[in-house]
Amino acid sequence: MALMSNGFVKGVQYLSDARGAFSNLVVVIGTTNLSFAPLCGLLLAVAVILIIRRLFKIKRFHGPADSIFAAHRTDNELDVRAGIGSTLVAFVSAAGGGSVGQYGPLVHFGATMGSFMRQHTGGMLSTDVFIGCGVAGAIAAGFNAPIAGIVFAHEAILRHFSLRAIAPIAIASITAAGVSKWIFGDSYVFAMDNINVDLIGLLPAALIAGPLFGLIAVLFMMSIRHSARFAAASGWSPARLLITAAIGAGIVGMWVPEALGLGTSVISNILNAETLNVGLLILFIAKIGLTALCIGFGMFGGVFSPALLVGASAGAFVGRVFVSLGILNAGPGLAICGMAAVASAVIGAPISGVLIILELTMSYEFAVAAMLSVVTSSMVAHAMFGHSFFDRQLLDRGIDVSLGRGHIEMMETYITDIAHDDYVALKETCSVQQAIRVMVDAKATEAYLLDDSGGFKGKLTLHALLAETSDSLAKTHVQSEPISIKHDASLQQAIEIASNFVGEHIPVIDRHNNTLLGVVTEADLFKLYLGLQGRIADLERA
Length: 542
Prior knowledge:
- By secondary structure, this protein is mainly alpha-helical.
- It contains 22 helices and 8 strands.
- The strands form 3 sheets. Strands 3-4-5 form a 3-stranded mixed β-sheet. A 3-stranded mixed β-sheet has the order 6-7-8.
- Helix 7 packs across helix 8 (163-184), helix 10 (238-255) packs antiparallel against helix 12 (277-296) and helix 14 (333-347) packs antiparallel against helix 15 (350-361).
- The longest helix has 36 residues, at 199-234.
- It is elongated.
- It starts with a helix and ends with a helix.
């Protein structure tokens, strides 16, 4: 992960510098020099992304949300091909100038490598611990922040702290940071030139601005979600969506090039107060819009780095407003608070956000001030949007990780896996007396009426037929709409249905062609549920 994280960032930086070196792509309009390099770079990136999608057969890109989901399942091996392909697409998107980040793809790449290595180590550790090791390595190497890497893996991905996980994850995180420092030097992501901290003036400003940062985080996340929804509902092909994103981002990038790419150097300029007020506001608006356009329309990448830039620009602007009004002297420190607050709310990891600031700045004062903004921002974002951007992505797929591993396993276990054919089937031409005789011989109190093509017509009960004195057709006494379970129902849904059921079997029906696939009993559901709980308990003890 040390090699991958540094290679990713340095590779993007090298290609970005190479793209900006094309002076023959610059035109002069009045007194303004406009470069077509961003537009050309993005269109070239689109072509490469389409090739990668085809080579890796990627139907959708995989990111941190998939890592979180995998860490909460027992059958949690990640798709290595999709993980590598998604990381390559993120690299190409960032190198081409897309407004995307690197940490989300690197986090998922680390999780994918952890899952892959677990399969080749004989199960010496559970998959979720290996996933946590890869994630911790990505954060530790990316930020030169090993403590934040350890906490992030537990807080954002595993969602629990345990003795079995802390040791290997700590080893992975510290090793990644150490190897990164050994090979690439003792460098930090954001360079700050001896910023003096006025903690007395910064703390009130950080507290007041915290809720505003929470609203900004919600605006940022909602923009991406609405853009993705529009893209999905448009019916456009992936190529058309990507070309639209490239043209839109390229045109804006000609005027506001700072809004493109990873934005690391731009954040450093903001922290050193090298950006004008109007520029901060324009950058803030452009970054939110371009990130939503790029990610929503298929230029895959992370949301953490764009959130850092959005928060830094908003914090710096708010800080300067405070100073101009003579209310509070927040200084440039509010840019750091905004950076931490917006990013922490987006990824749902407030403790990690504070620790990243502490390890980046080595300033206790900045960490304390950032904590105030992070806490209040996260509260606002959680109330208005949810725990994190990744949790919302999973909720959109019908997955609620907040309910725990047991619930996820129940939702991922389908009832057709335990449906069996130990039931009595009768034809529509069967009489009441014939039906009674067949059911008595089979020692069954229930039977199912099927037509000549096997279509499900309903359910017959022995006590209802015994009450009938005439020898009429059994179908005149059928329950046409009995309690049943649809063919694609999960164990969780089946248990909810069974809570209102009284009888021998529950039929499992294919609703598309109205055929009987089998039956399940309440005992079948109980056994499956207890088996799942046992596997989860074994995993947690491992």
